[in-house]
Q: What sequence folds into this?
């Protein structure tokens, strides 16, 4: 039997520590309870929002006028073969706990995704990625419940429409499904992925890797956690949602213009675009580190605007420093976006989900 609560504050259920009340709130530990919750929402004629661990979301000051559903379906089942490992993981499991489990088992494929906050159910929705890996590379199936019909379905990788930080779950079919479990294929006893510059630098650093040891899955996880911590991107470092803006992918002709501006603007701004800040993409386009653009636009780490600002360690992490409101956060966010647009001619996209905003 579901325990459905009324007028629950969402503030303490998000890493931003911001947000109004949920009209209704409940936690579902089984698929049957998810269906029961959806039936309740239909009977009350209210919308449903699925909340993970609140790490990639900004809730409005008005809260949410419907049912906030926390999916807490646990469970982990593995099938080991000589060259592959299949892991079927409940949507309510912690993502980083699963990464740690795989690394300890010496299963490669998600080691660079260490330290990303959130639940398993959110991984395919956001198509999380970092430091040279993207979760869609290991996902084979996503089990869901269709909200309208309240029936279970299994979606294959190709059905999910994965692209950079996107899937059907947060674009074309947003609000249609609730993820209940995810199936991953991992590689036992395989080499770790060390292609991202920050990781490469870590392993050639004589202090961090004094004997120049060959990267292992455990060492890559350790390095990734240290790098994320240094950028203030581990859960609990600051009151924020991690990176608030996605990296920018543009055409090569657009990049040439932006490169000229960056080379001009970075003068006199220590730390601005100091390392590698752009990468060639497979389709002839180029990815730009949005942190570079934000910094060059005048928003260095630690920039404050009242109760809100950029993290002292990372320009992309818009941070609640002193009991800020969601409105104050969005005003600061729009100031950043409009300044970057004016200076570089590109519109940067917001990464966290905005809940309860009109």
A:
């Amino acid at each position: 039997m579901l325990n459905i609560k009324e007028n629950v504050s969402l503030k303490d259920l998000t890493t931003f520590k911001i947000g109004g009340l949920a009209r209704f709130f409940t936690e579902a530990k089984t698929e049957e309870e998810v269906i029961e919750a959806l039936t309740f929402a239909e009977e009350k004629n209210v919308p449903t929002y699925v909340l993970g661990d609140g790490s990639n979301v900004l809730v409005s000051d008005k809260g949410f006028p419907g049912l906030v559903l926390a999916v807490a379906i646990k469970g982990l089942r593995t099938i080991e073969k000589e060259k592959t490992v299949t892991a079927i993981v409940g949507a309510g499991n912690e993502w980083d706990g699963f990464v740690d489990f795989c690394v300890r088992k010496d299963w490669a494929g998600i080691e660079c995704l260490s330290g990303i906050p959130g639940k398993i159910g959110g991984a395919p929705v956001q198509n999380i990625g970092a430091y040279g890996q993207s979760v869609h590379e290991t996902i084979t199936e996503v089990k869901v419940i269709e909200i309208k019909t309240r029936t279970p379905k299994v979606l294959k990788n190709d059905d999910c429409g994965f692209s950079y930080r996107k899937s059907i779950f947060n674009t074309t079919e947003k609000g249609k499904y609730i993820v209940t479990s995810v199936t991953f294929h991992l590689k036992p006893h395989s080499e770790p992925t060390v292609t991202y510059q920050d990781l490469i630098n870590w392993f050639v650093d004589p202090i961090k890797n004094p004997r120049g040891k060959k990267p292992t899955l455990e060492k890559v996880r350790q390095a990734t956690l240290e790098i994320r911590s240094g950028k203030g991107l581990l859960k609990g470092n600051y009151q924020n949602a991690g990176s608030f803006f996605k990296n920018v992918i543009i055409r090569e002709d657009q990049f040439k213009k932006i490169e000229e501006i960056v080379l001009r603007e970075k003068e006199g701004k220590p730390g601005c675009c100091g390392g590698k800040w752009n990468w060639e993409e497979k389709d002839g386009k180029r990815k730009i580190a949005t942190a570079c653009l934000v910094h060059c636009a005048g928003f260095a780490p630690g920039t404050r605007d009242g109760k809100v600002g950029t993290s002292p360690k990372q320009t992309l992490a818009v941070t609640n420093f002193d009991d800020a409101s969601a409105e104050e956060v969005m005003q600061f966010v729009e100031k950043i976006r409009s300044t970057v647009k004016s200076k570089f001619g590109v519109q940067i996209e917001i990464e966290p989900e905005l809940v309860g905003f009109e």
